[in-house]
Amino acid sequence: MTIKILAFGITRDILGGSSLEMQIPGNTRVADLRATLYAQYPALQKLSTLAIALNTEYASDEELIGEKDEVVLIPPVSGG
Q1: Which domains does the chain have, with CATH numbers?
Q2: What is the rounded distance in angstroms from the CA atom of residue 30 to the CA atom of residue 35?
Q3: Second label for 74, Cα 20 to 30 Å away, from 10, 26, 37, 49?
């Protein structure tokens, strides 16, 4: 299945754009997607944290990604 991944902050720079379409097999967990992204974009591993949200909510590594899910990469955030 094809999913669209939205990227913000430093993840946008690492991926080279604000979104990315990726082919993944059915029954892909968030942890599987994270491993695939780390393999294709090693600079992502250097981030202190990288949260992944599905449909506007933070996702656990065990959650399955559906074909119509909105996937968002959330890099470390700081501010005051």
Answers
A1: 2-74 (3.10.20.30)
A2: 9
A3: 26
